[in-house]
Design a protein that fits this description.
The protein is an alpha+beta fold and 135 residues long. It is built from two helices and eight strands, in the order αββββββββα. Strands 1-2-3-4-5-6-7-8 form an eight-stranded antiparallel barrel. It is globular and about 35 Å long.
Length: 135
C-alpha cells in the first residue's frame, strides 16, 4: 500500500513539473511592438509589428513604409527562445531572427540581399494597460 501511494505521488509530481516546463516554453511574443532598423534602406527603418499566437502558431502583421505585410509562419528553434521567419518585402527575400525572453525581444537581425541589418523591438504599452482603465 505504501509503495502505491509513493508511486502515485511520484506521478503527480512529474505531471506538475512537466506542466511547469511546458508553460515556460510556450511563452511567445504577442501584442504590438515598434521596431527600428537604422541600417535599413530609407523608408524601411521603422514600423510596427503585431504578433499573434493562435493554435500554437505564431503569426505577425507588419506595417512598414505605408504597407501592411502578413507573416504566417514564425517558428522557434528547437527548445530555444530564438525565433526565425522568412518573408518577401518589395521583391526581396528577408530572413528575420530574434530572441524572446523575459517579455523582451532582443538580438533582432534581418538578412536581406547580402545585408545584415540589426533590428530593435520595443513593446507598445497602451494607456489601458498602464493605468488599468482607458483614458
Amino acid at each position: 500500500m505504501k509503495t502505491n501511494v509513493m508511486k502515485f505521488m511520484y506521478v503527480v509530481f512529474c505531471m506538475f513539473i512537466c506542466t511547469m516546463v511546458s508553460a515556460q516554453n510556450s511563452e511567445k511574443p504577442t501584442g504590438n511592438w515598434e521596431f527600428s532598423a537604422s541600417d535599413a534602406p530609407y523608408g524601411y527603418q521603422e514600423g510596427t509589428c503585431f504578433f499573434k499566437a493562435k493554435n500554437g502558431k505564431l503569426t505577425a502583421t507588419v506595417k512598414v513604409s505605408g504597407r501592411e505585410l502578413k507573416i504566417d509562419d514564425i517558428k522557434a528553434q528547437d527548445n530555444t527562445d530564438i525565433y526565425k521567419c522568412q518573408f518577401y518585402l518589395d521583391g526581396a527575400s528577408v530572413e528575420l531572427s530574434f530572441k524572446f525572453s523575459d517579455n523582451k525581444i532582443t538580438n533582432g537581425l534581418a538578412n536581406a540581399e547580402g545585408m545584415s541589418i540589426p533590428v530593435t523591438f520595443k513593446k507598445i504599452v497602451s494607456e489601458t494597460s498602464k493605468s488599468g482603465k482607458k483614458k
